[in-house]
Known about the structure:
By secondary structure, this protein is α+β, with helices and mostly antiparallel strands. Helix content is 27%, strand content 27%. The protein has one domain: 7,8-Dihydro-6-hydroxymethylpterin-pyrophosphokinase HPPK (Alpha-Beta Plaits), CATH 3.30.70.560. Strands 1, 2, 3, 4, 5 and 8 form a six-stranded antiparallel β-sheet that branches.
Amino acid sequence: xxxxxxxxxxVAVGANLGDxxxxxxxxxIDLGRLPSTxxxxxxxxxxxxxxxxxxxxxxxxxVRMATGLTAPDLLAALQALESAAGRERPYLNAPRTxxxxxxxxxxxxxxxxxxxxxxxxxxxxAFVLLPLAEVAPDRVTPxxxxxxxxxxxxxxx
Length: 157
């Protein structure tokens, strides 16, 4: 993909094992180092209780970036960053050293066994919606925020 065909992508970043705050900070830096990719905006960082999961609280953020990577290549790069950070998947929704979810890839809609975009559950999660509202406010409505208002979340920086 050429530099002229960059796509705006939004990636949710989270961690709840080890130094989660540092893991999220480092992930933001690492996202900016991906080939043909530039971080445009990073949300505030949030602390949230695990959602449909167990373990310590998460640190979360959302990054908006311009990328020349295809959606499958971006997903592969995100998974490589997770692996490099020690991410293991012993069971569904296990605690994690780093979690990178591709929420949006431009306006693309795709559904395959490997990748679904937009992320299928992005509207259900305060830890996605609140930071997403900071970096892509056109994607988040007041009704969406009201629907997740009962989920425990607080801004930490």
